Amino acid sequence: MRPLALRSRWIPLAVAVIGSLVLAPVAADAGAPRIPADLGVCGELHRLHVADVDLCTHGPDVAPAAAGTGSGAPVPRRAVTCLGDGRSGQRVEVLYVHGSNRGAASSTLRSDIRGWVEQVEWTVHESARRHGGDRRVRWSTDGCAIRVTSQRVSNGALSDFSTMIGELRSAGHDRADRTYLLFVDATTYCGIATAPRDDRATNNRADRTAGYARVDRTCWDAGDEGYHSIAAHELVHTLGAVQSSAPNATPGAHCTDEHDLLCYADGTGGAMRTVCRDSDSRTSGAGDAFDRLLDCRGDDYFNPRPRSGSYLDTHWNTADSARLHDPDAPQPSSGGGRPSPTGNPVGYAFWLVFG
């Protein structure tokens, strides 16, 4: 952005534009984004009992084989993008979490984890490309290599998600501008994640609170075994998918319109139906089958180019997460969300006049 050395002729215009946007009446709409009175309330989700923060979770996800998704070739990998110094701003940090009977991650394990992270990167990038956009994850890196931090927790924490989060927060993994992608050396779960309940298009809780996406050892290599990436599934939950107000949402933060990475019969209700078949994909076709991509029709939780006035244009869209990077965005990549008249009118006005 240029320095704010504005000629006087711009000031009346700025005031007029901002004033018209701020003072414009907003019609009441039952489908409008909801501003929770208490952001600690989880609605239909489970509330996690963590000492210093209220978090919500959809509960444990089943292993891909149990969901009946089939298997095929391994999920492709995509090299992560180097962004800035690798540390500042909103980021996704990768942790190897282990108990007292395990040591820090070996060089071999670190290499394996980085490979599984590259499957997450492919999933996000190809999903955006399918809808005509571009997104990359804002990973925490050392240079251009994924930073993998080893963190010991008590053996009891390995068997309880809330306890584990509490210990991680006590160890300093509690930044509000972070999602922590956890490769946990345990077999308690396949995957489980925090899932913010807030469907506002901007200033969303998903951008302002720490997220925790856990994948246990039995599902680390699901993508290598021919299924989808469990790490990608859990990560997108932490970014705010799927809100209960979304068109095809289940009460358990998933969706009903297959084939889709976040859609499956999670036991909370909603009849599953196939509306997107593998042959309909507009990606390269390499490994895009078996529920591997996000939001098959781009109408529930992820679309880098939502139609004006559509649900994802007026409600929370995980493609706008501050923890994802849009190479074509006019605003700094560490910011949250795209500037738009329907999202943040004041910010949009400043961007139009001063950007």
Notable characteristics:
355 residues, alpha/beta, two-stranded antiparallel sheet, disordered C terminus
Explain what this protein looks like in three dimensions.
It is globular and about 50 Å long. It is α/β, with parallel strands linked by helices. The strands form 5 sheets. The protein has a 5-stranded mixed sheet, with helices on both faces. The protein has 7 helices and 13 strands. The longest helix has 24 residues. The protein starts with 9 loop residues before the first helix and ends with a helix.
Mean pLDDT level: 82
By helix and strand content, what is the structural category?
A: alpha/beta
User: Any low-confidence stretches, pLDDT <50, length ≥5?
Assistant: 1-30, 34-40, 280-286, 333-355
| H and E order | HEEEHEEEEHEEHEHEEHEH
Give the topology, please:
Blueprint: H1 10-23, E1 46-50, E2 53-57, E3 91-98, H2 107-130, E4 136-137, E5 141-142, E6 145-146, E7 148-152, H3 161-170, E8 178-184, E9 191-193, H4 205-208, E10 211-216, H5 230-238, E11 257-258, E12 273-274, H6 311-314, E13 324-325, H7 345-354
Parallel strand pairs: 3-7, 3-8, 8-10, 11-12
Antiparallel strand pairs: 1-2, 4-13, 5-6, 9-10
Short description:
Helices cover 21% and strands 14% of the residues.
